[in-house]
Amino acid sequence: LREANTALSASLSQALSHFYHNAEVWAAFSQEVRSRAEGLNALRDFLSTPAGFLRSLARTMVRGSMAPFVPDLPTPPAVTEPDITIPPPVVSEQPEPPALTDAMIAESSIPLPSAQADHTSALQPVTLRSPRHKVLFVAGEPESPGVQYRCIRNAAACLRAGHEARWKPCADVNPDDLSWADIIILWRVEFSGHVDILLQLARKNGADIIFDTDDITFLPHLARFDIIDGIRSIGATEQRIETVFTEIRRTLMRSDLCIAPTDTLAGLMRINKPLTYTVPNTFDADSLRRSRMAMRKKQWMGSDGLVRIGYATGSRTHQRDFARVAGILAKLMLERADLRLVLFREPGNHRPVLLMNEFPELTPVSDQIEWRDMVPLPDLPEETARFDISIAPLETGSLFCNAKSELKFFEAALAGVPSIASPTAPFRQCIVDGVSGFLADTPEEWETALRTLLENPDLRRRMADAAYHGSLWYFGPQRQALVFDSILEGLGGEQAAARASELQIARGAYRGKGLPDVPPHEILFHQDRMDEAAVTVIITSYNYEAFILEALESVRAQTIELLDLVVVDDGSSDDSIALIAAWMTQHSARFNRLILLKTTVNAGLGGARNCGVTHAETPFFLPLDADNRLLPDACASLLAATNEMTAYAYPILEQFGEPTRHKVLGDKPYHPMQLVAGNYIDAMALVAKWAWAAAGGYYVSRSAMGWEDYDLWCSFAELGLQGTHVPEILAEYRVHRTSMTSSVTEQDAHKQRVVELVESRHGWIKLVQKAAKEREKVS
């Protein structure tokens, strides 16, 4: 039997190879027939449309002779039958299966159907599909930087969401890849005979086909010099680009649904494919890490006395875009000898990316232009961090430019650089004008924005911080994983589509809850050893000189080796600052980064915490009130319980100090719907910075202080961000009469304001305890 099966398998493999060969031959023939048919249609349109004929005649007079192409019908290929031998079946002697006994039926894990009435036989069985998918990203331009944004990082997002994913150049995709994948995402793939076979085999295997592109590359009628200036500047012809767009459009039309990096692009796709999602370009953990380290090094080294305006274009497709600002830049550079314009050139031949002969106004200031060699995408953060201001001019009236993504904005933000951008639709969605960047359209607006940032270094820093906070969630890997998960799960049939659609509709744009409110503050102590810790402890203190040293010592005793510490004094009137500064000087060797901040005016608990988080340069932070203490394993144990998708991890707290009825806090397991009745998680939790940014930070309200942590957990629940419980006692909560909870939060009038604020921000909570609590006493 084994020998017969081996022979049969070999024969079937031979037949399958033969059939694949025939399929390739006929697919090529089919493509040729379609091409000839399209040629005939084009010729018919050419001859029947006077305007088209006259335009072509005019081009002929300028460029030379013209001979219309008249296609003929290709000869069908010959197809041969495979020469295979099917061996006769071998029937082996098999024992009769044992009869099922009642006991065996009862023990079976598969339920048997009960007797049904005849009318139930018309019901269709429910088809179950694996909840996890296998996703193949196919790159049409595998050598371009776009493959990082649309294939590699998106494949990582699918993996992060629990699916299997891989990517391949289109030319390398083979039948094994197509038999493995149940979802195929085609990025910038031009239709061809190879792609036709790819699609046929994918559909035969039941795969869903998703089309993706990051520019308007699927509307052939837009392939004109007057619409896309880049066609001219890269030396292409309208006809060539129109052909490319036509083939990409053919791929789009053969897909089941689409994804696009901007809402504008998605809207154009929906004209032909109503099922289209916006899936933005994103950064990854490595680009974030390198960007923030480059920013820290620049801050530590200090200014060299120059101010740099950077234009980080990587292709010769932005001549008309840059022309909008060239004259203004030249004017400012003539006025300021310290001003530098950073532009890029090709390495080796040093050919500028911009065609500089089109900008004669820059000739008088050519010695103030810094030319930098283009670098691979992974090395871009170090180049971007050299800028003081990043510019992203675009033709705002161009549909093509309005579909472009926000790359220049969020990559500059990660490196601590503020941006001025043209008010295209994507930039208007991600930039809060005057807060996280400037939007400028007219020459006057560009000049005003540039002068404002050039003259105000502190504004540049604050604007860059806001841009960074606004980018961490929407352009981050965690949101991308959640977005892909909902899209992929919606492809599992009608019931799955209904559930996924409910979630997507409830999420809306899923852009987070606004920018964190960071009050004005100053830095009193700053140390940075340029290492990369995973956790920052943030201590907030207000007139706690009696307790602050205990809190600091509990942080110094942490078993985690590499640790950052930020202390925020919220306008204390006692000797807290002197104590903290002296302690930091004495124990600076223990910490990687060590920072002491002081708010300009008393900002309240939420404002002070937001100041501290702004200066945290680690994936996680742990807030610690100055009257509480951490146990030595707190940071290490909480960090060990997290992964890339963890928004926060909370431990059990042991109460100490004055007598209390409850010995521990935070002993309940994680379930976000427990928050409906009230808070059960203390502020002493390890929180992901990206999650804090997604929630808009801690709320800031001195008149309603006290529930900042509860509000944050509720915001996480609304965004679908996961928490985790670490059932270990890892911190100590001090009970005393002068604590903020006792002296402020649980006072009648104040408690009423706190409840009203949090209920107005989270309408789904149904608080069990609204009145101020009486002070607990041990009987």
Automatic annotation (TrEMBL):
A GO term, aspect molecular function: transferase activity
Instruction: Keywords in alphabetical order, please.
Output: Transferase
Q: Which Gene3D superfamilies match?
A: Glycogen Phosphorylase B, Spore Coat Polysaccharide Biosynthesis Protein SpsA, Chain A
Protein name as annotated: Glycosyl transferase
Q: Give the organism, scientific name.
A: Acetobacter cerevisiae
Domain of life from the UniProt record: Bacteria
* Residue ranges of domain Glycosyltransferase 2-like in the record: 536-668
One of its GO biological process terms is: single-species biofilm formation
Under Pfam families, the record lists: Glyco_trans_1_4, Glycos_transf_2
